[in-house]
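Key result, reporting period 2: structure in, sequence out.
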């Protein structure tokens, strides 16, 4: 595995800013799946800057469309930068675009609102917009633009973007296939009631000083083990974790199977790793960019119909 990782991605570890900060979408009641188009017309290959307005003014996103391949519908990875990061910052940090060109998937990079971008992951930040509604609109726009397979739509993010990814898992499970929060802050998350079980990969550094692995304070608020326990309960996972033995010595991977609808829960903890997007180094053949993608591509699931918004 180490050789594969070295060949595919050689990314430097990246430190990120503070984490934590949401919105409320009601789950759908219908259960009929929506089919993806077998062939469709996609936007030209390369980077596209787009403005998306979900009712609070336009916000800029960056879309990367891979080159080559047949004009079939492609998977989509939604990537959310951390506090203070722009969409292009997250593109440079992860190099998802380079991997997307090889693996043939679309990447959408998005940032929180404001001059110092920050995601509203609690729904209680004064003056902050509904970021779930914004990202829902982003997915609507990009799925039309870039020939996306709606049964393969994934979300990931780092730090504050990891917390936003966690919130999307609770609020947009009806349209997402899997999520992978990285170094996320879970202490301010509202109650989680997803429309259905959702596959989850959580990546965290054991030495994270911003959102500590064991949580904050005597109550261990936002502890990673508690977050994983919540999702195992939501997904109906049975039995003890299975340990993967083929990773680098400082990476421990736990997998909980026997979950409803194949919605497995996987956790990678990196020893001695601070608050970061863990990446390949000369002494560790592990790339979060590659690992999240290999997790995502193993999951395919048709979305539920969009929820009906009450009017009047």
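The corresponding designed sequence is given below.
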């Amino acid at each position: 595995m180490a050789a594969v990782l070295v060949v595919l991605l050689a990314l430097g570890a990246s430190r990120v800013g503070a984490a934590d900060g949401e919105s409320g979408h009601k789950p759908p009641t219908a259960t009929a799946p929506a089919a993806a188009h077998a062939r469709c017309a996609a936007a030209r290959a390369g980077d596209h800057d787009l403005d998306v307005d979900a009712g609070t003014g336009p916000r800029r996103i960056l879309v990367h469309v891979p080159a080559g391949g047949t004009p079939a519908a492609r998977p989509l990875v939604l990537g959310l930068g951390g506090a203070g990061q722009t969409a292009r910052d997250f593109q440079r940090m992860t190099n998802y675009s380079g991997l997307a060109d090889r693996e043939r998937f679309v990447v959408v990079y998005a940032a929180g609102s404001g001059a110092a971008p920050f995601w509203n992951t609690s729904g209680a930040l004064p003056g902050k917009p509904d970021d779930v509604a914004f990202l829902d609109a982003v997915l609507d726009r990009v799925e039309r633009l870039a020939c996306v397979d709606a049964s393969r739509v994934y979300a990931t993010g780092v730090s504050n973007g990891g917390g936003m990814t966690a919130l999307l898992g609770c609020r947009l499970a009806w349209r997402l296939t899997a999520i992978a929060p990285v170094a996320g802050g879970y202490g301010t998350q509202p109650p989680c009631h997803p429309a259905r079980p959702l596959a989850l990969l959580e990546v965290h550094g054991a030495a994270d000083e911003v959102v500590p692995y064991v949580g904050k304070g005597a109550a261990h608020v936002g502890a990673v083990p508690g977050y994983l326990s919540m999702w195992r309960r939501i997904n109906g996972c049975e039995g003890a974790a299975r340990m993967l033995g083929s990773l680098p010595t400082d990476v421990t991977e736990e997998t909980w199977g026997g979950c409803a609808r194949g919605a497995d829960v996987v956790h990678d903890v990196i020893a001695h790793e601070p608050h970061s997007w863990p990446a390949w180094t000369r002494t560790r053949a592990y790339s979060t960019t590659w690992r999240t993608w290999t997790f995502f591509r193993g999951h395919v699931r048709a979305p539920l119909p969009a929820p009906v918004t009450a009017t009047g």
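The longest helix spans residues 131-145. Residues 172 and 194 are 7 Å apart (CA to CA). This case is discussed further under Risks and Mitigation.
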